[in-house]
Design goal:
heterodimer; A: mainly alpha; Helix Hairpins; 70% helix; elongated; B: 576 residues; mainly alpha; 1% strand
Amino acid sequence: MTAGTLFGLCAAVLIGFGLYGLIVNPHPLRKILAFNVVGSGVFLLFGAIAYRGAGAGMGGDPVPQALLITGIVVAFSATALAVALLLRLFDETGSVTLSSDPPPKSGDDTGAH
Amino acid sequence: MLTTSGGWLLLLAVLAPFVGVLAGLALGGRNAQRVAMLLLPVGLAVAIGIAGSLVQSGETVVYLLGGWAPPLGIALRADGLSAVMLLAIAVVVCGIGVYARADFGSAAGEPEQRASFVYWLLLLAVWGSLNLVFVSGDLFTLYVALELLTFSGVPLVCLDGKGETLRAALRYLLFALAGSLLYLLGAVLLYGGYGTLDIVLLGARVQPEPIAWAAATLMTVGLLAKTALFPLHIWLPPAHAGAPAAASAVLSALVVKGSWFLVLRLWFDVMPGVVTLPAAQLLAGLGATAIVVGSVVALRQERLKLLVAYSTIAQIGYLFLLFPLAFDASGSMLVHGAVLTGGLLQAVAHATAKAGMFMAAGLIYAALGHDRIADLGGVARAMPVTVLAFAIAGLALMGVVPSGAYLAKKLLLDAADSSGQWWWTIVLQGGAAFTAGYVVLVLTNALRRPAAPVKLVKRVSRLSEYAALALAVCSLLLAFAALGPVPSSFISNPLLPKELGPTLLVFLGGALLALGLSRRSLFGTGDTDGSMRRAAVAVGRGFEQTDAFLRRWPTAGLALLLLAAAFAWLMLSRSL
């Protein structure tokens, strides 16, 4: 197995974990973290593609690396915005659940407080 | 390929709004509004300039950033699609800007308000990001543009800072982020497979093979999540209904068009030969379901703004009907042509009419202090211009002759006939009746004689009323497209029996739907419901429960994955 394939597989695993968390976890903060895990997976995959597509005498294809930096900045801004919204939501309502229905008693759809 | 003579206009279309955002932020206070007001006509002029340059040269307007040609550099391009959308969005933004002066304007000497300061910056940011979506020439720039659009749309949802709207904004942001990551993953795969992200280069290089199918699937599903096509509409109703009207109009008329346009770009320009007819049928099938579910749930709403929000879900459904109709005769390739013109016309008609409708709903809310549909009686007498705007916007959405949506419908019907896909004929014709349903519901309530004279809690601005009316009328006037890109044989006298018949049928169907499904019985009290009405109400409740179930996070997430699997299967199955 080449290093490129290994990184690609790692990326696939990360994306899978992240998507699972994003869908299943009810807590918004964990969803934000899961988003970052998916993001890392995508960036890792892009890195692997850069590695595989390296030209003669170069360590890697520079275009994906340039795009990666931009992608990371975008993901960082998204995380910052989401966390800011989450903090405001907690300040306003005292809870951080995403469901607009009154919280069920067993707490299956609410976040931890 | 070189920068064309009008190329710098593309740069201006993107840069001007963002320079406005920065200038407004730096100058602070009331200056944000001044900057926005200054830029509205400038942006409109730029959009007209781009369209003019395109018509004059007859070729795509191109601007190469820094003079570097793709694949190394980045190109901005405006073809016919981009020019039409740029122009339409500029008109709608101007209308919304005039309308919003009453809500978010601050008078001299007033202390600075956060919402009215931020609103103008966000309006400009949405505009700039949309312009970038329309002119971007490569998939990564498009990703950045999409994210900018989301980042400027999300704060619009929670302008008032209340808990409920903050929650809606967070839901919107998280779901949209999931969508954009899927899009980015698809773009990354395309780069890995073909070594470029430039749309034109990719269009020439992409082959129907597994990596392209995977990319097409991921990008399409991600964009559908951002567009809120049924069943991925988890975030739309609370977000659009909770925001102030001037913001809802932006979200509903403009923001969802960005990701829709990208689906169009992807399917028609990047992978016309990769996507398959069955996949397009699934896409349009989702659209048809969106029309039915969105309209029925809209009829079941008690509040006007929620009704309009749910009707947006139905309108988004309409925009996806064009895909299976735009395939060539052998059904193997998507082609530019009359169907695409029709779809574009529909999008523009919806953008203008929807903005007008949300603005009218917002005015009614502001004037009455509530927007309960059952208590709208007498509002037509108190605010005739607003109700007229709502009615005209409704007619335009229905596609009654003559309107832009009517022409669009004609073009799509024509294609459905010639390609033998009769089922889309039914959807296109029947969809209008569903739209008529909620328009009839609102208008009967608004025209009803009230028990007590209506008390207006606030006088609304005349200018805002006329802005809403102007946008609604714009949507009707799109029928004049018959003079240009659409063959004039498509328009005929609305009073001829062959036109009048379907129109009356649409109204009749709409009235029946409204009678059967509305939350409160239209006539008399609810106690004396007949068995028909009881059955219809039960159906309506069923739709509501389905909608509530689908809008839960786990269900929506699962739907996202299932859709991805379905699209992948429908594309793969051709090669098996």
